[in-house]
Every structure is written in C-alpha cells, then in structure tokens.
C-alpha cells in the first residue's frame, strides 16, 4: 500500500490530505467517483480518479480531464491553517516566560514550542508538518549572543547599543535559516532553505524601526518583509505567497493590542491573529499569483 496522501475536489472545494488507505475507502463508499478530480504530490495537475491506475476498473474510467488545483470556498486552494486548544497555548506561553526569566532553559523551550506549533499547522499537500530542530543546534549561537549583548550593555554608550541591535538581528536571521532547514512532512525533511542575505534582513528591520515613528507604517513594512522572506525560501515546488495588505494587518493588530490590555482575552486573540496570519499564507503554482 502506498504511503501517499491524496486530495479530491468536492463541489469546488479541496478536501484532504487523506492517506491512501482512507482514500480508497472513500472510493469504495462512492464519495470519490471515477470523474472526481484528485491530486497527490508529484502530479503535474489534477486528474480524474478514474485515470489513476489501480483505483477503478477500466470499464469505470472516464476520459481524462486534467485540470488545475481547484480553489477552496474562500478562493485560497493552498492556504495554510492553524488551530490549537486555549489551555495548550496558555501552558506554552507560561513555559516561554519561564525560559525568558531564567535564560539558560530558553533554547529547549523554544524548540519544544516550535515542535508543538508546527504540529498544529496544516499545509496543503504536506501532511504531518513537523520541526526536527534540536536545542544544541542553536545553543552556541544563543549563548554567544546573550554574552555579547550583556557585555555591550555593561560597557554602555550609544555605539554599543547599536552593536547590540546588530547582534539581535543576526540571531533572528540565523534563526530563520535554522527554522526552514528543519521543517519536515510525514517524518521526512522538506529540504527547504532560506537564502535571504543578512544585510537585506538588517535593512528590513531598520526600515521597520524607522516606520514605527509614523505610528502605523510598520504594518506595511511587516507585510512587505514577510513577502520578501517567503520569496527567499528555496526547495519548494510551489510559490509561498503572503497576500495580506498592510491595512488588514494593522486593524487586526490594533484589536489584539486593545483586547490584550484586559489580560484574560490574550489567548483567544492570539489564536485569532495566528489563524488569520496562517490563512494569508498560500501555496500556489509558480507564476500563478499576481499581487493586486
């Protein structure tokens, strides 16, 4: 039995992914017919299930009707999604605060939280998303950065503050490279890498810092920076697109800030915001997406 995962189109909506054993059960129950469009990783486009060898008898097969991946009801056939229980989030958040306070446990807590968060993320065509990074992979960089920042703050002065900023940006850039390199699907490495340069990443962060002076401009810088990050992810057959606008991000951020002032709603607004950010990240055929 193949270990592939399958998608099928039902009334214009993409369903899946489903393991092949379950997919064959759908065929036996009549949920997937010979003329149903289906797709799995490695296929150039969607095809009728009857054209896939081994699913239907020759008499039941319909003429080939290859097509593009159908869009979901919201128009984003390749949109990511994320969901988690509120109590899970609260526990993870408190664990992160513990790591920040005591410093040394933070790499282990960050890795644990990343493994948890990726397991709650759904990516079309990539079943069982996971994170395989380990704390030792970043421990030396983390400790070196912490020590350098502490020393610079002890020395003091404006120039040392700027050097501290450069180190923090370097750690963030290295973390991006480490994160994408350790993503997996179905227990297998995805083979992704982040090729964006440190200097471009630094430039985006400097622009973001300057944009805060305008009060609202940072939202547009954030969306543009996110698009730049996705454009520089190598190793994926599909293009990763962040389609949100600066205005859409801004008003949601304002809602989160206001709601968080009351403390108790924080987990709910965090899930709402993270779910929206995931839904704005879509996987499309390369060259098929044009920004409005």
UniProtKB/TrEMBL annotation:
InterPro entries in alphabetical order: GYF-like_dom_sf (IPR035445), GYF_2 (IPR025640)
Keyword Transmembrane helix in annotation: yes
Transmembrane segments: 93-116, 136-155, 162-181, 201-222, 249-270
Record Pfam families: GYF_2
The GYF domain, residue ranges: 6-55
UniProt xrefs under SUPFAM superfamilies: GYF domain
Keywords: Membrane, Transmembrane, Transmembrane helix
Domain of life: Bacteria
Protein's UniProt name: GYF domain-containing protein
